[in-house]
Amino acid sequence: MDDGRFEIDNNLVENSIRPVALGRKNYLFAGSHDAAQSAAMMYSFFATCKRNSVDPYKWLKHALESIPEHKANRLTELLPNQFTDIFPLLK
Questions:
Q1: Is pTM beyond 0.85 here?
Q2: Which of 18, 19, 37 is nearest to 27 (CA)?
Q3: pLDDT (tens digit per residue) in 38-54
Q4: Torsion of CA 11, 18, 52, 80, to 10 degrees
Q5: What is the distance, to the nearest Å, from the Cα of residue 41 to the centroid of all Cα atoms in its chain?
Q6: How far apart are alpha carbons 50 and 4 in whole angstroms?
């Protein structure tokens, strides 16, 4: 309480993890373990887009169109954090 750099509550942290908690509940009804893992993967991709200010729709469209011609050992180049300058988040 003596250090003004720290918040007195943890509301910001709780708000930031709320989507994860809701997603965890939704995974129970995904139909199968594999489907739940796929949903979690997509949540991760879209969270990475948000974190890096990338338009998720444009990134996903580009990534899905690029995968067939892209070298398998270089697929990390298609991740959202690689597109911060190419696909900025629409305001």
A1: no
A2: 37
A3: 888 888 888 888 888 88
A4: 170
A5: 8
A6: 29
